[in-house]
Design a protein that fits this description.
Blueprint: H1 2-30, H2 34-38, H3 40-57, E1 62-69, E2 74-80, H4 82-105, H5 112-131, H6 135-153, H7 160-191, H8 196-199, H9 203-207, H10 212-226, H11 235-238, H12 244-249, H13 258-265, H14 267-270, H15 274-297, H16 301-322, H17 325-356, H18 372-386, H19 392-404, H20 409-434, H21 453-471, H22 473-489, H23 506-523, H24 525-539, H25 543-565, H26 570-591, H27 607-610, H28 618-636, H29 640-660, H30 664-684, H31 698-724, H32 730-738, H33 748-756, H34 758-790
Antiparallel strand pairs: 1-2
Helix pairs in contact: 1-3, 1-5, 3-4, 3-22, 4-5, 4-17, 4-21, 4-22, 5-6, 6-7, 7-10, 10-13, 15-16, 15-20, 15-24, 16-17, 16-20, 17-18, 17-19, 17-21, 17-22, 18-20, 18-21, 19-20, 19-21, 19-23, 20-23, 26-31, 28-29, 29-30, 33-34
Main location: membrane
Keywords: Antiport, Cell membrane, Ion transport, Membrane, Transmembrane, Transmembrane helix, Transport
Subcellular location: Cell membrane; Membrane
């Protein structure tokens, strides 16, 4: 059983991709039941992960590896420890509910199968990210999350806002992805390993290196862009253009937590420094307050939840930055609490929008009578967000206050930021729970009624689990917090979670202050919103507008560069290419002593030993003369047709050289290519006057002629210098030795082309084929007007 569970770790990341491939087919065959069938995949993954929990709680790490690129020592390794298990269970558990929710939310949509495929592919990418041990695999899955989220955000491609939001998210997160790739490569060069499990024991190698600042900057850039930290936060609210199932899954519980997971996983490698702590706490604090205040400015329920997600991500980064056992424990509990209540609230908001026709909080009221089950789901989520006792959110708040309590004035400042941020989030939680559902009923675009069971199951289950988890603090501390903290810090945290309430505990009174401030924020929400919108109008600048300005400037710059480099003048293109060739030939030769043979020495007769001149026979001189005659014919040709035909003389001369030196197959190939080239050029040039001669000014003739002589002399000189060296026969010996036994071919040249350079040859054939198709298309385009003029069918 243990072996099968270990092997299943790799299957966990692969199964969603297989389901994604089959999703459109299942949707077309099963119709409305497709989501229930696909629900089996994430639900099964959740059950398999639960089967690993007992071993993880006991302190074990379950790992497996698949051969990836053995020649480079790369394996596709996966492992499950306390941290990855918490994230993977959250992804698969919430993902299972989201699949059901999406099936009901988009019922009847003609592209539902495609949407479910994108959703499952994203799930696979996120599971791969949190389970992968190989850092290159982490990068691969990291980029897959960006690509699949791009497809999901822009799912409604008919709307410009959706397309813009998808491109913006892709641009921002991909910048971070490239930074992550560079950081991974640098860490591998410093530590000599691609595996995170091995890197953990070598943390001093990175932290004590001169490249620590570079690696830290790159990792923070990757994490901040993915997890929407200030100043990269603006893409997440725009991503709400996606359907609500996407918002509930990607931008609350999973994708945006990718950066948080990366920071937590690399804490042993990069943490425990003042730069790490200061940077994370500073940026996280700004993001927390910025997001919470931004939520109060909104009236769209999805936008309110999006802004609170930004705030919560900032709070998680602050806790990782603090880095103590209590702070990491608080981070784990808050991650769980946030995933539960935020995904549930998003699903409730989607249900309200689906059934009432609006998400505007100022246009909603009294929905509890018409949608009582939705109200219960909203209340369960909002109370956990408020941090009320007997919910997981309460213990998260208590643990983070304990982590920041005491210490120097900076610790007190961090504590004040946490209290203010939690108070703002508590007020917003009351706003979401009360304003749409209680009070007087307001007219809505649709007559409100209860959502389908598939859309209600998610908020009820997640809200119920948040309460059940709050009723079992000892289990939460022992089976969840301790293994996860052990995975991050290498030591288990002592759980402080308890249902007992000690009025002498100052942390309890900090919670009371938070609740009081939260109620005050709720009561003054309208005034705060008015003031914030006035301030925004007065400033007239947002990060989102700055992004548009940067992208517009980038496009204009790219256009200017394109116009400068791709001006359409073929002769300038060719001149630039050959000028660079001349520099590439003569500059290295000059620096490496390629012209030392010219310097006089005492022994004037030894210059010939420094440079090997060709020792040609009479008939070889004849072929050379033949080629020179062809060159002269091209230069003095009186018409375009004669110039084209004269070009074939050089190719024919080269074919003769191949033939003389024992390569008849190459000679035949060269001859065929030359004949074909001349024929194609002649056919194409029939669009021009072949009896005309192109007059060229003397300055063009002198410029191009000089450049041709320089390049020809450089190539000839280089080849003669090569002949002065000792011939290294290792490669030719290898081909001769392996041609028959390995490639089963006696003709070494053919074996090289077909086997050893198979992909290269395929590429060359593809280029020739593409050129031939293009020429054929041009010829057919030219012939159509003539056929039409004659009236032929």
């Amino acid at each position: 059983m243990g072996l099968s569970l270990d092997a299943s770790v790799a299957l966990i990341a692969i199964a969603p991709f297989l389901a994604a491939i089959l999703a459109p087919l299942i949707q077309s065959l099963a119709g409305r039941f497709a989501a229930w069938i696909l629900f089996i995949v994430p639900a099964g993954i959740f059950i398999v992960l639960l089967g690993l929990a007992e071993r993880v709680v006991a302190g074990q790490t379950i790992s497996t590896a698949i051969g990836w690129v053995p020649s480079f020592g790369l394996t596709l390794g996966f492992f499950v420890d306390g941290l990855s298990l918490v994230f993977a269970l959250t992804i698969s558990g919430i993902g299972a509910l989201i699949v059901l929710y999406a099936g009901a939310y988009l019922r009847g949509h003609r592209h539902l199968g495609r949407f479910l495929a994108f959703l499952l592919a994203f799930m696979g990418a996120m599971l791969g990210l949190v389970l992968a041990d190989n850092s290159l695999a982490i990068f691969m899955f990291w980029e897959l999350t960006s690509i699949t989220s791009y497809l999901l955000i822009g799912f409604d491609a008919g709307r410009q806002a959706a397309r813009r939001a998808a491109i913006q998210a892709l641009v921002i997160t991909n910048i971070g992805g490239l930074c992550l790739l560079v950081a991974i490569i640098v860490m591998q060069q410093l530590s000599g390993t691609w595996l995170l499990s091995e890197l953990r024991g070598l943390e001093g190698v990175v932290r004590d290196s001169a490249f620590y600042g570079l690696v830290l900057t790159l990792v923070l850039a990757a994490a901040f862009t993915k997890s929407a930290q200030f100043p990269f936060h603006f893409w997440l609210p725009n991503a709400m253009e996606a359907p609500t199932p996407v918002s509930a899954f990607l931008h609350s519980a999973t994708m945006v937590q990718g950066g948080v997971y990366l920071l937590a996983r690399l804490t042993p490698v990069l943490g425990e420094t003042s730069v790490w702590t200061g940077t994370l706490v500073a940026f996280g604090s700004v993001t927390l307050i910025w997001g919470a205040i931004g939520a109060l400015r909104q009236t769209d329920l999805k936008q309110i939840l999006a802004q609170t997600t930004i705030a919560s991500l900032g709070l998680l980064v602050v806790l990782i930055g603090l880095g103590s056992k209590a702070a990491i424990a608080a981070m784990i509990v808050y991650f769980i609490a946030h995933a539960f209540y935020k995904a549930g609230l998003f699903m409730v908001v989607g249900g309200v929008d689906h059934e009432a026709g609006t998400r505007d909080i100022t246009a909603l009221g009294g929905l509890a009578d018409k949608m009582p089950v939705s109200f219960i789901g909203a209340a369960l989520g909002a109370l956990s967000m408020f941090g009320l006792p007997l919910t997981v959110g309460y213990f998260a708040k208590e643990e983070m206050y304990l982590a920041a309590f005491g210490g120097d004035w900076l610790a007190w400042l961090v504590l004040a930021v946490l209290i203010l941020g939690n108070a703002l989030l508590a007020g917003i939680a009351l706003l979401i729970m009360i304003r749409p559902f209680l009070g007087d009923a307001l007219p809505t675009p649709r007559k409100p009624h209860e959502a389908p069971i598939a859309m209600l199951s998610g908020p009820l289950i997640l809200g119920g689990v948040a309460v059940v988890g709050g009723l079992l603090p000892e289990w939460l501390g022992h089976d969840v917090l301790a293994p996860a903290t052990l995975a991050v810090l290498g030591v288990e945290a002592e759980p402080h979670l308890s249902l007992s309430f000690d009025i002498t505990n100052p942390v309890l009174w900090l919670s009371v202050i938070t609740w009081g401030l939260g109620i005050l924020v709720f009561r003054q929400a309208h005034r705060i919103r008015v003031l914030l919108r006035r301030a925004e109008l007065a400033i007239g600048w947002t990060a989102d507008r700055a992004f548009d300005a940067v992208m517009f400037g980038l496009i204009r710059f790219a256009g200017a560069v394109t116009r400068f480099l791709h001006h359409g003048r073929l002769e300038i293109y060719l001149f630039t290419v050959f000028a660079m060739l001349g520099l590439a030939l003569f500059v290295p030769l000059s620096l490496l002593g390629g012209f030392d043979w010219i310097v006089p020495t005492a022994d004037l007769g030894d210059w010939s030993k420094r440079l090997v001149l060709p020792d040609l026979r009479i008939y070889e001189w004849g072929i050379l003369l033949f080629v020179l005659v062809g060159l002269l014919a091209v230069l003095i040709a009186q018409s375009r047709l004669i110039a084209i035909l004269s070009l074939g003389i050089q190719g024919t001369g080269l074919a003769l050289i191949f033939l003389l030196f024992g390569a008849p197959d190459l000679a035949f190939t060269q001859l065929m290519v030359e004949v074909l080239s001349v024929v194609i050029l002649t056919v194409v040039m029939t669009n021009l006057r072949l009896d005309a001669r192109d007059h060229r000014p003397f300055e063009d003739w002198a410029r191009d002629g000089t450049l041709a002589v320089i390049c020809g002399a450089g190539v000839s000189h280089l080849l003669m210098l090569v002949l002065t060296g000792t011939f290294d026969s290792r490669l030719s010996d290898f081909f001769a030795k392996t041609s028959v036994p390995v490639a089963h071919g006696a003709n070494i040249v053919n074996v090289i082309l077909v086997d050893y350079r198979g992909l290269d040859t395929l590429g060359e054939i593809s280029v020739v084929m593409g050129a031939g198709i293009a020429i054929l298309a041009l010829l057919r385009r030219r012939n159509k007007p003539a056929i039409a003029a004659r009236g032929e069918p």
